[in-house]
Every structure is written in C-alpha cells, then in structure tokens.
C-alpha cells in the first residue's frame, strides 16, 4: 500500500466517527436532553467500537485484511442511511451503534496490513499517513455535518456519510493490494492462546491504558467545547462550531512531520512530548477570548494525535503475532475511553463547567505519561 490510499482510507473511515459532534447543541435542543444525555450520540458509537474491536481482530486474522476492509466499507452504507430517518435520540443512537460495529474492522485490518506488508523502513511513514488521514477525516466529518445542518438539516449529514462510505469502498478496492505475507488464523485454540499471551504482555497492557486516556481527553474536550461555544459569551451557530474543528488540520501537519523522530527516538519520547503539548493547550483553553481558546484546542489536539501515533507504533513493537487481535485489544481500550468521556465529561460540565473538564483531561494525560514511562522503557 502507498501513502496516498492509506491516508484516504483513514480519512474516509473517520468521517463517520465524530461527524455528529458539531451537531450536539442542535440535537440536544431537538430531543430536549441534557449535556450528559446528548453525549451518548458519540458514546453509543465509541462503546460499540470498543466492545467489538477484539472480535474484529479475530475476524481480520481469520479472513484477511483486504477482504475485511472491503466488506466493512460496503456494509457501512446501510446504518448511515438508517440514521437519516431517525426521529428520536434512541433511534439515532441505534443507527450509530451499527456504524461503529463495522468501523473497527477497518481500523484493526489496516494497521495489521501495514505491519505485515510494508517494508520496515516505510512502516512509520505509512502508519503516520493513515493517522494523518484519520485526523483530516475527523475534522472533515465535523465540518461536513455542521455545514449540512446550516444549509439543510442534520439528517442530510448522514446521507452525505453514506456517499463517503461508498467512496471508501472504491479507494480500498483500488489502493490495497492483495496480501503477500498474511497467514490466516482460524483455529479457536490458537486464537485463545494468542489472546492470553497478549493479556500477559505488560507493555501491551499499559499501551491499552494509554489509548484509553488519550481518547478520553480528546472526546472530553471536543464534546463539551461545542456546548461552551453554543452558549454565552460566544453563542456560535452549528456551522461556526463546525469550523472550529479546523484545529484538527494542524494535527494533520504535525503528525507526519514527527514521523522521522518517532521512528528514530521511539514511542516513549513521542509520548512525553505529546503529554507536555496537551497540557499546554489545556491551560490555554481556560482563557475566555475566543482566539486563545481555539489556539488551546489546536495545541491540545496536536498532543493527542502525536500520542496516538506513538501508541499505535508501540502496539506493533510490543508483539510478534496476532497483530489484528492486538490492535483490537488496543481499540477496545481506546474507544472505551471515549465512551466513558462522553458521559463523564458531560456530567463534569453540567456540575462545574469548563474548568472541571480541563482538570479532568489534564489528569488523564498525566496518567498516560506515567504509563508510558513505566511500560515503554525498551521500545
């Protein structure tokens, strides 16, 4: 696989993940629910992604990476269309749950494919291209949904996602060559042995904890900042809130730039830099002026994206077999953090406002830094 299709697949996949985030104020008003309740629009999908990721790893190890990516993109079209017809929060969450059962299939298969098929000298570059694509997709999904609501309604946003999933199917068909080094693993006993081996791997366990904490921060920040921006003194529209997510694009610049340093100095160094970066950004978000708030969001997001690249690299460096299953375990923890954040951050915001959310996120990043120092000493 080349860098371009790797990045495009990441972008088209992650259009789906956080697209409703810029719509949360509109959805909260339409469905007449609290900040904690509307956070389940994100939490329902990340919960499904967390729960299904280990099973997705088993499926990708058994059926093959390319076949799984193609099938998942094809099936993703259906729940996107169902979401356009949702008339209640429960119906929307059900459709979103269906989307997120399928998304982990692509995530675990792509990472494992790159680790097995890419030459070692190109692995870091291709992995960061994929991560960069996920960053662009995360921004574009939020912007797309905000603009769709501004010019039409929020139902239109999910119709557009169905079209992007069709495009993802085409890119995967064109851009992912058939595997040359893949060996199918279909025996339950062998899968159970590898699963137990992964659970006993201390470096992998701590990497999973890091994944939980870094996405906990990102989702906490961007779920609740939409509510902050929709209220006084900002009172921004959905379209304007969607444009705030352009700060993600800075991460799309930073992540590939840091790829040589990640390859040379290792994931432990990258995580340390990521933690310091995120803490500096969180401190800036405590300011009231909108430019300083947006700058703080950008810096905090860059720290998370760098931490994610470091963690994905650490997953592959800490194992020698069962790569899709290891990715699945990591994604279980990673999106588990998002699910917890979707409720906990909303409750913190309802209780003490933005300052409570920022303190919660700072504690999460400090915890990730501690786990990296403890678990990545040999990586």
Taking the alpha carbons of the first and last residues, their distance comes to 25 Å
| Estimated helix fraction | over 70%
Indicate the overall shape: globular
Total strands: 0
Mean pLDDT: 85
Q: What string, H for helix and E for strand, traces the elements in order?
A: HHHHHHHHHHHHHHHHH
Question: Could you characterize the architecture of this molecule?
Answer:
The protein is an all-alpha fold. It is 83% helix and 0% strand. The chain has 17 helices and no strands. Helix 5 (65-83) runs antiparallel to helix 8 (154-175) and helix 10 (202-230) runs antiparallel to helix 15. The longest helix is centred in the middle third of the chain and has 32 residues, at 120-151. It is globular, with a radius of gyration of 19 Å. The two termini are 25 Å apart. The mean pLDDT is 85.
